[in-house]
Amino acid sequence: MKPEFENISLIKNEEKKRFEIEIDGHFAFIDYRETGHQIALVHTEAEPELAGTGAASAVVEKTLHYIEGHQKKLLPFCPYVFAYIKKHPEWKRIVDEKFEGYDKL
Predict the structure, then answer these.
(1) pLDDT at residue 1 above 90?
(2) Which helix (H) or strand (E) holds 56?
(3) Which pLDDT value is given to residue 2?
(4) What is the pLDDT of residues 77-91, one digit of tens each?
(5) Which domains are present in the chain?
(6) What is the DSSP-derived secondary structure letter of residue 101?
């Protein structure tokens, strides 16, 4: 994660069902579904003003830390999150082994 994102807080916006970070009034976020011990990440997005800044990657990394810190298992349905974990295989440790694409990570 780029240093400029390290001190930005991750918000779990339960009303909108998304994890989000805010940079200069603009958001990068991941839509999620939570059931019991699992959190499914379904869609990652950064507002156009944040394109190319690394904000999407930062919100993914912060969300993975949140999931691990809350002892949940990840279901990475979002293609961006799935690709992030492939690129950073150390995060496979929090993916639920029952996830259909687990062996492709």
Answers:
(1) no
(2) helix 55-69
(3) 87
(4) 999 999 999 999 999
(5) 3-104 (3.40.630.30)
(6) T
